[in-house]
Amino acid sequence: MSSSKTRKLRQIFSVQSFSWTGDNLTIVTAQPHLLYNGITVTAHNIDAAYDSVRGIVTVVDATTFTIAGTFTKGNFYQYHVDGFLPGQTGGIGSYSLPRSLAYPMVVQSYVKGTGGAAYKIEVSMDSEHWIEAATVTHTTTTDDTGFVTIQPGWTYMRPNITSIGVNTNLVIIMGE
Fold this sequence. Notes:
The protein is mostly beta strands.
């Protein structure tokens, strides 16, 4: 078993509006963002000539947060979070798996924060009908790490999240 590349599962969210105050980028979302103080996000600039802004979040309210960063021109239209957030449960996303003829694929995960997390890995051939392949439970120790393997031949994978503790980020990495 080996991976030539890996990727963190990430979620992308829309920005309703944004503004700069000094070196703080304020983002407003249409839906509650579920973020907490101290998590890292990356705000993406629609204009490729300007940089994205990556930084640590300070929550203002359920739909507003700030990121400390150097002012940059452009239009911020979305932001992403590596992994999953407190309050998220159920089957989230559908991720294509590399087609392997002979080797299992490794899925590794870890938690940042002391809230713990639990999820099931589900696999599918058509991204509509899911079969449980494994269960992963993380302790309340930050950086608690675990892994499972997925047998070759499956086309899609998704995490079915049971729980993520308060102020905890569940990060899932898969091989490509």
